[in-house]
User: Which sequence fits this backbone?
């Protein structure tokens, strides 16, 4: 029986593993990418170098001499001038794969808040660090956040090791076991004074809350007996480290405790692959300074390598290939790219050498050379090696170039060129067409950092078109890239209609194209604009040979709901598809985009899949949308799965724009392809744009304010929760589609079995009301997050370690009165406070496991804590706080209130 769900260990953009390596204590292959929309400024490069040089020494100290930055590559955009004496050609380095992004997506020229984009998985890599150009150029940023090098180490720790902030701006204080107010800090004995903002008087306690008043600040003492933790306050000007088990503060509310089950930062770091098992032992000498390489992105160079073996005539595959590739050449591949085409069977042939995409004529020239005849066997490596010759036509090299490899057949010699491919510097994107494509095909994509797609032979499938449409440039220029608003297919009877609607929101509208395809005979097509304008076949560009009709909307397409109707005038059923693409309407308003994928490239039953989709506008999350995952198993079945952004049911963090779910509905062995469908409804969906200092606290450093007289930094001032507001350009209703790639599933039994346990509870909370402890959580299901569990085992421990390491040895609570509710509903258990206070411990910890009717058991839930004592009038110690007045409350609650923390971390 499977007893746990493996969490995601990948980024949402489906990049499998970081290209960065830690070898002999030095990080190599660190890429810093400057966005194409950032104006050219050589000073920016120098600031990046200064930051990494400073950060390398801080990292070396904080990791106990076990890591430093050795090799840093700065990727300059093509929009900057060429300088052959300074800039080299990149290999597989691209903007979307970079560790650090320098971007200003909304053109506001603000310093912004440095942060790490992360899924919130403890101990596992995030996506990237985000910095604005102004943050690097304006030294006011140092006053706000501290030295750039130390801030980089802070954000790197989140990115590389999956640790989180030890600060909490919304609950910056807590009451210790003696009844004194203490600042949330790490290490736990970090000394300081609680003062009012003027620094003249000590703080007062708010009698209604039992906490220091809202304007209270924490002023650290200049002299300390311990090192400060970087994950607490990177701006404190003293030697810093990472808290370990001896210094970790497990009694406070912060992101690190919530997301890592109260493990110390160093405990998490030491168990990552970088250091686990003695890897990268401490150095005896100081590290060298980082080396920097300047790379300048080149124009995109792509070769389509297309299977034309005999089996490609089956199920209309060659025709569908021509349709999908034509759409790619006509609408998707970016202006300024160079494209060539190779066909392969038992030999390979160049259909057309590299062509510069500089207008419609070039696109049409390429489309006219797409293959239409089939025959012979399948030898994949011959096609790839022939493509290498095409790719060398621009500069004599293949590094940084791309291949789109499509096949429906198997090849016994497919592995013979794999090592050559890996060393070529080429990125290969693979498309497996039909149920029999070679099982090793995806190795080319995995080995080169490419994307993986599959498309079935289902007559109503649009998977092939959407796969080609998803292979866009990795330059980071969201403004120039095509955005898929809708991709849909339908099998339609004679005289019947394929119809629907597609909203065009204000973030897009430029170069909007509706592309229809058909199977046999040209249908009657009608498209209506939101204001009632009508278009029909006469207004479209018709490609009869490819059976494609294209409607180009002139100018900026009208915002609102467009409708379409396709009437089948043929005497037999035929399949229609529609692809709607558009581009950004304003260069300073990024379009809403959807990306994502699955947590594995290959899975063996009964291991589940985590499916996640990121919905964003620029770097900001888009929340309150409806996101569906459409999972397709070859020719057998299609499953639609709702994805959620509520911090439960497989989703890690609420309202972060990452929508997730657990998939385990396997219907057989084979390739499962994934498609995302996202829908936003006007008035409900919004972009979560963070005002200054309110980027999620789990992933960014907190800013301190300097005391005017002493120049000491003040921390822990209570701040309000981040606001949720729409962008300056209202989103309105929108739709988006995207491919999520493919995964191969093996070992599915012929007869279905119940091999899936309940899911992990990730939002367990506690509160005290009238001397009653209220435990609440979102119920999991009998199979992960569907159905109803049979029972719960709730345990109480005197430390989080006791529950993490020896859950069944902890004291069980009486749950006989608990009646399980269906998955997704709120489950509540009431306990007398006396039952916890009787343990004679000021703080106790609780966790639970769920059990299904087959005896399957979930992972241990997140851990919550509650304080059980009555605060008294106690003298001040170390000048930390004013005495708590007698009777200000009967019970002071200290609880990991995850619901409240969702906005703060």
Assistant:
């Amino acid at each position: 029986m499977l007893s746990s769900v493996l969490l995601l260990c990948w980024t949402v953009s489906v990049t499998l593993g970081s290209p960065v390596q830690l070898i002999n204590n030095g990080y190599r292959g660190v890429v810093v990418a400057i966005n194409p929309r950032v104006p050219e400024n050589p000073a920016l490069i120098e600031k990046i170098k200064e930051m990494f040089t400073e950060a390398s020494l801080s990292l070396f100290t904080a990791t106990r001499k076990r890591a430093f930055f050795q090799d840093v590559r700065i990727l300059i955009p093509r929009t900057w001038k060429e300088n052959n004496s300074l800039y080299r050609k990149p290999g597989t380095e691209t903007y979307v794969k970079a560790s650090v992004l320098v971007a200003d997506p909304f053109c506001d020229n603000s310093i912004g808040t440095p942060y790490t984009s992360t899924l919130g998985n403890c101990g596992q890599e995030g996506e990237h660090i985000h910095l604005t150009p102004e943050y690097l150029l304006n030294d006011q940023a140092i006053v706000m956040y501290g030295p750039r090098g130390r801030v980089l180490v802070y954000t790197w720790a989140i990115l590389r090791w999956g640790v989180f902030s030890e600060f909490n701006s919304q609950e910056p204080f807590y009451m210790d076991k003696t009844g004194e107010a203490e600042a949330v800090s790490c290490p736990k004995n970090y000394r300081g004074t609680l003062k009012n903002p003027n620094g003249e008087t000590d703080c007062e306690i708010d009698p209604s809350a039992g906490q220091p008043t809202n304007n209270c600040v924490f002023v650290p003492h200049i002299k300390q007996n311990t090192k400060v933790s970087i994950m607490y306050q990177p701006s404190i000007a003293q030697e810093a480290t990472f808290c370990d088990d001896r210094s970790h503060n497990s009694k406070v509310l912060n992101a690190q405790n919530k997301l890592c089950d109260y493990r110390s930062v160093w405990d998490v770091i030491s168990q990552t692959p970088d250091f686990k098992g003695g890897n990268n032992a401490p150095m005896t000498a100081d590290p060298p300074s980082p080396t920097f390489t300047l790379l300048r992105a080149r124009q995109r160079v792509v070769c389509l390598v297309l299977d034309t073996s005999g089996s490609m005539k089956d199920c209309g595959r060659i025709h569908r290939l021509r349709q999908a590739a034509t759409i790619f050449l006509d609408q998707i591949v970016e202006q300024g790219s160079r494209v060539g085409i190779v066909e392969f069977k038992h030999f390979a042939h160049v259909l057309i050498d590299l062509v510069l995409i500089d207008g419609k004529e070039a696109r049409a020239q390429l489309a006219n050379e797409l293959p239409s005849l089939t025959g012979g066997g399948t030898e994949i490596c011959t096609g790839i090696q022939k493509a290498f010759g095409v790719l060398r036509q621009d500069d004599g090299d293949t590094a940084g170039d791309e291949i789109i490899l499509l096949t429906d057949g198997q090849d016994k010699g497919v592995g013979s060129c794999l090592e050559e491919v890996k060393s070529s510097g080429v990125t290969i994107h693979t498309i497996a067409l039909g149920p029999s494509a070679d099982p090793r095909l995806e190795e080319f994509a995995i080995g080169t950092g490419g994307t993986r797609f599959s498309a079935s032979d289902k007559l109503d499938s649009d998977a092939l078109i959407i796969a080609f449409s998803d292979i866009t440039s990795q330059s980071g220029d969201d403004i120039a890239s095509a955005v898929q608003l809708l991709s849909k297919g339908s099998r339609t009877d004679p005289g019947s209609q394929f119809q629907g609607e597609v909203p065009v929101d204000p973030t897009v509208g430029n170069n909007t194209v509706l592309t229809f395809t058909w199977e046999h005979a040209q249908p009657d097509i009608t498209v209506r604009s939101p204001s009632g304008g009508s278009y029909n076949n006469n207004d479209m560009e018709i490609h009869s040979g490819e059976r494609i009709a294209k409607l180009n909307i002139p100018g900026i397409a009208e915002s609102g709901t467009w409708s379409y109707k396709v009437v089948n005038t043929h005497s037999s059923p035929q399949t229609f598809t529609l692809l709607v693409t558009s581009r950004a309407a304003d260069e300073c308003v990024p379009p809403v985009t959807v990306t994502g994928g699955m947590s594995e490239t290959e899975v063996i039953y009964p291991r589940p899949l985590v499916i996640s989709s990121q919905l964003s506008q620029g770097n900001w999350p888009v929340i309150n949308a409806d996101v569906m995952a459409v999972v397709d198993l070859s020719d057998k079945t299609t499953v639609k799965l709702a994805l959620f952004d509520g911090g439960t049911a497989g989703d890690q963090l609420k309202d972060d724009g990452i929508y997730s779910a657990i998939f385990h509905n396997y219907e057989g062995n084979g390739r499962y392809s994934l498609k995302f469908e996202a829908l936003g409804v006007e008035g409900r969906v919004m972009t979560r744009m963070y005002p200054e200092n309110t980027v999620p606290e789990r992933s960014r450093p907190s800013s301190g304010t300097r005391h005017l007289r002493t120049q000491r930094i003040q921390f822990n001032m209570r701040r309000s929760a981040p606001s949720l507001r729409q962008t300056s350009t209202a989103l309105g209703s929108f739709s988006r589609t995207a491919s999520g790639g493919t995964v191969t599933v093996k070992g599915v039994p012929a007869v279905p079995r119940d091999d899936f346990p309940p899911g992990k509870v990730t939002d367990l909370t506690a509160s005290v009301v009238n001397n009653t402890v209220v435990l609440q959580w979102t119920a999991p299901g009998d199979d992960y997050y569907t159905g109803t569990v049979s029972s719960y085992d709730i345990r109480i421990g005197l430390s989080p370690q006791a529950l993490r390491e020896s859950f069944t040895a902890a004291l069980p609570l009486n749950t006989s009165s608990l009646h399980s509710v269906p998955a997704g509903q709120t489950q509540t258990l009431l306990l007398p406070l006396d039952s916890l206070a009787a343990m004679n411990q000021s703080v106790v910890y609780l966790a639970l496991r769920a059990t299904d009717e087959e005896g399957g058991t979930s992972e241990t839930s997140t851990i919550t804590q509650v304080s059980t004592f009555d605060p008294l009038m106690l003298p001040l110690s170390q000048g930390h706080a004013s005495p708590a007045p007698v009777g200000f409350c009967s019970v002071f609650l200290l609880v990991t209130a995850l619901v409240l923390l969702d906005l703060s971390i």
